Amino acid sequence: GQDSSAGDLMPMPTSPATDLLSPAAPQDTSLFSSPRPSGPNEVDISSPLVYGTPSSRVEGTPRSGVRGTPARQRPDLGSVRKAPQVDLHSDQPSADNAVASEPSAGQNLVIWGTDVNVGTCKEKFQRFLQRFIDPTSTEDENAGLDLNEPLYMQKLEEISVVGDPVLNVNCRHVQSFDAELYRQLICYPQEVIPTFDMAVNELFFERFPDSVLEYQIQVRPYNALKTKNMRNLNPEDIDQLITLGGMVIRTSQLIPEMQEAFFQCQVCAFSARVEVDRGRIAEPAVCRNCNNTHSMTLVHNRSVFSDKQMIKIQESPEDMPAGQTPHTTILYAHNDLVDKVQPGDRVNITGIYRAVPMRVHPRQSNVRSVYKTHIDAIHFRKTDEKRLHGLDQDGEQKLFTEDRVQTLKELAAKPDVYERLASALAPSIYEHEDIKKGILLQLFGGTRKDFSQTGRGNFRAEVNILLCGDPGTSKSQLLQYVYNLVPRGQYTSGKGSSAVGLTAYVMKDPETRQLVLQTGALVLSDNGICCIDEFDKMSDNTRSVLHEVMEQQTLSIAKAGIICQLNARTAVLAAANPVESQWNPKKTTIENIQLPHTLLSRFDLIFLMLDPQDEAYDRRLAHHLVSLYYQSEEQMEEEFLDMAVLKDYIAYARTYISPRLSEEASQALIEAYVDMRKIGSGRGMVSAYPRQLESLIRLAEAHAKVRFSEKVETIDVEEAKRLHREALKQSATDPRTGFVDISILTTGMSATARKRKEEVAQALKKLIQAKGKTPAMKYQQLLEDLRGQSETAITKELFDEALRALADEDYLTVTGKTVRLLA
Amino acid sequence: MLSTQDWIHAPLGVVEEKFAAQKGSSPGWEAEVVEFFKEQLKEKSAQSLVPSLNDVPLHYLKPNSLVKFRCFIQDMFDPEFYMGVYETVDGPTDAKQMLHCGKYRDVAECGVDFNSKNTVTAERQTFYCVPIPGENLWVKDYAGSSQARVVASTSYVPSRQKRSYEEDEDMDTQPQKQAHALQGPTDLQSNADCKRQETEAPPTQAASASHLDLNFPLPGERGPACLVKVYEDWESFKLNDALEVFGILSVSPALSALAEEDASSSFLDPTEGMETAEEQRVHSPPASLVPRLHVLHAKPLQHNNPLLPHATSDDNMASVRAELLAYFTHVLLGDGLAAEFLLLHLLSSYSRRDALPLGKFTLNLSGLPAASYSERLYQILQQLVPCSWYLAMSLQNMNQTRLRPRKDYTANRLVSGSLQLAQNTSLFLDETRLEPGQLDATVCNVTALGNVITWQKVDYDFNYHQMEFPCNINVLIASEGRSLLPSDCRVHLEAQVTPAHLEEYLSSIQAFPQTSSQLNRFRIYLSVARLLDYSISDQMTKQYVEEDFVEMRKDDPQGVSADDLHRMLVVARLLCLSLGQNHLSRDGWLRAKHMEMLRRSRMEQHQTVNGNEP
User: Fold this and answer.
1) Shortest Cα distance, chain B CAs vs residue A394, angstroms
2) Which end of chain B is more exposed for a tag (fewer CB within 10 A), N or C?
3) Any idea which fold A402-471+577-728 has?
4) Which residue in B109, B258, B558 is closest to A582 by CB distance?
5) Fold topology of A118-222
């Protein structure tokens, strides 16, 4: 039954416009770009675009070079073949929107309603494929390709080897190669993409005549610059190629869509194939073989269907203006794009934006004056998939306008930019300059280094900060501010969050009944900052998961048969209250907040936010607080940098600046580290560990980022040193000696305290030995004896510790209130 | 010149006229239409001529007439594209072509020529609006009564004058059933209904709407929900905004028919399957239940106190304050200090500085007697504030009610929760209802309430992520002991009434005679004081605030923190506002300090009495 191929190319019996209002009308997607004259004066030039019709699948293709490979229909492009070409210089009224691309004779045939000349377009695209080189490409897709050779020719080669007949074309490449071609692609995708298909197939089969493909190559353009945000879609985008980002929220079941109906005559079994045209099937009324009327019946099994899926995507939360709800858009995915995405995926989709009039009931004469819109998807690109592999460069890259970049650079050039930014941070919180500076450096972060080749994996680039101090010193406010400032921030309270809430949990998806992994705060804040309030209130269990996150920056999960490792490259900003509600200056940090030292040592900076309790401070504080109440917004803005500028500044620095250590800087760092080690060694203590050196490097890099400098210089190291020292001075000072002692943070006990413990234990041992052979002693008695003997005060805790130490030596045991000697 | 009647009863006529005048060719006509209605509505009197959807049952309103609606944006739907200008072809002979304007309408004329080059596609935004949640009865009543007379005369003007007169006679002589039979079509039925307006109670709209969830934030609310179509700068509207919109009412039965048809046949046509039946129900409910409103003019409401703009009474604010204070003292069992704080609480509103809400004043009234007292207290407050809501913090409520709104992706709408409230709504949390038991941690209701109190924000649940929406809710917590929720200020009630007389006293509170004029004075006073501007002079800061703070810190370095200063500044501010002053006065500051001191000493005293109090 090949007789239909030619006949079907003829326009369908012309129907009055009202016919469009039939239930099938929404299928007609070409209402806007190529209005067709509905009268008898139709241009009757058959289009060369016929190659893509299913009827041609059975017997070769019109193009000689393409040989026996069947073409596959592209439902994503809508009804392609109904676009006749017109001669610009004829009397057609289409001249108003047509721009002759080339004035030479014979070249002025364009597709009706557009300015696309098939021949020129094809030629241009082939030229693009053959010549385009992008030596600076960093895309994943191009990995392993020789960047100095024509990119797409290599991809064609890949197709010939792999046999997957899809060619993804970056629109940005097309634009840089031929702006006019790009414009046509964006404006008339429905016409241009088939032309591209044609061009690429000709080229491909010319070059690889022997390769066998399942069907002809389809071109899938992506990365159109048209629209990035769903909110900006407007009626002008209809029927144009657009790219937008969003999150998949729903996917429908697979919808089989009929492409070609198969009819069989019930009388003589003669069969006929009818293509679906704009969603309608023209049922043959008469059998052509036996001339019986109404004898043809549809045979479902032999009809041809294509896959289709409805997908809903929602604006990503970052794109939304405050106080509005996210918009959603409907997508249709066809054929192999079906089931490519799952709900929850972040995707960039490229497709053609469509609007179709609302269907109207046949019995009613009036129409709803509203269109339904959707996007026919041509290309999906998951943005979060990349996040699992590495840093996404373009996926989330915020686009900065030239002006904005200029302002930011001007700001960066100012000598006091560091101080400015620090004071712009949380202006409502008074003073604490160093803490703000620390947080600022945390916001910028260090440079990401990859040592996986040498076996050490990634180095942590994020700076972790712990704030501890008296209640009511606006720690939470600071956290809240940071959380509001960064795009990928999470705020949790240690009291309310469980280990599961921080990491990930497995739950049954209500729809699919499958086990799915729901990620928690730490994973969600990947590449951002996780603010954890009430850090001390966390259960030990919960805290233990932080060990891995805060150094290895990954999260291993083994739950309900799901074993995986997730990235959690998050900086942690935590706040903790002292155990005794008020900070006890006589105790060390560890004793005050009762956190395991293994965790504390993972913080680069630990700040104390203490109430200084001094009159001048109080006065300034009062002034500052009062000013919050009466200053107007404008005044505040004048005084401080705008939060938006700060946001952009940080985003820009994080994306574009990756400083490297200069020679002098490395020397300075080495010296700083050696100095730190020296301080302690004089007193027989270790005052710095490699972790501290790494912290210094990170801080120095972050400071260089603040200056928009690609090189870490000595001043960066100086500031890093200063800040690190400042933080240490606050948190690692041994209250007994007044010295900074890093071992407080690394081992949980200062060296002096350890020494003291040993001394007491020895004294106790001596005392017991002096008592002679008494196998058992009263606890209380022993304590009093020791107190009487020692010249320094012996606390009960100290005594207990000494007993424990001796018990560890197997010298004695303590049972209740009696101390027994062993051996 | 158009008469008043015309622009109210046939606003589309005005639109058509402007459109025809410019042939729809230049974009200027659209601005002109908007300008025209804005001009007409400038006058307060003109505004009250427009019937209000809040007060007049839908079926009394004439389709395609101008109506107003005092509402709250509960959800925002996706923008829709419509035929801004389209052409019709007349019959089979496509000779006669006409240009039409599709703006402010839902349904297009028949015979649309889809291939016409003159078609202009335009964009509009749909908001799902409900009456302001928690709006108290007196607001509704007052707004309604000020309208009622006007409404009766203008709400309905028959579309076919002559026929209607005939019907009038019919009505007198014939039984109603027959009248119905005569009329038939739905739009005429409203004629008959209108006749019965005075005698019959309006058909229970809520009952007929019961199968359709109108998605009100608060349980037990009723009223019209509306799909508001906005044509101009919809970006300026935010979720949870309270608005007064003037627009063209569209209740075309065709819309409902379309919706039904769509829903029933959706499975037949797979391409239509993109919208689930649920989504259909939500996004195109029958117009008889959820009318469409095409906005001509919309203004955000700062407050919804209907008394406010009229009554510029000469009353001295201080004297009303004294009166109100006396009333509160009486209500709060003779506790003057608690009454002061309650008064300040009712005036509070806040402004946001970075993440920090400044000036919010959550009050925790602890030490309340018997349970029924808190409810009575709420009933009294209900009489004073325009919007309020009572949440009994019973275990069942906390575990089962939905406080945070949640996005339902199947129906593609924001399912409302009780914390989706308009600004300056008073939320009354009754903690005396709390009973021992296990709180369900997954519901997060307590966390949500805590967030509202501390940060004035609600995290809406969007399934895949949370989204933060700022709110401005005045929270009052009534509890026996210290509340489990954070609060800015806690006052322990010291009843001057002996428990023996409590019952008697409580019942007398209810009976405490309140003339409506006095109540109205209170209502006006509370709204006016809240809207006052406020400033602090530099000198005041230096001389008193700083000095005092330093002094206080000296005396008690542990006990006085920045939070205390914040609180004192807020108290001082509210105190000055309550006296009608718009700047911090020395007197105000001293009084605030004194009040704080009294409150603190009472707390300490209370703490020593009840050893178990933390």
Assistant:
1) 22
2) N
3) Rossmann fold (3.40.50)
4) B558
5) mini-chromosome maintenance (MCM) complex, chain A, domain 1 (3.30.1640)
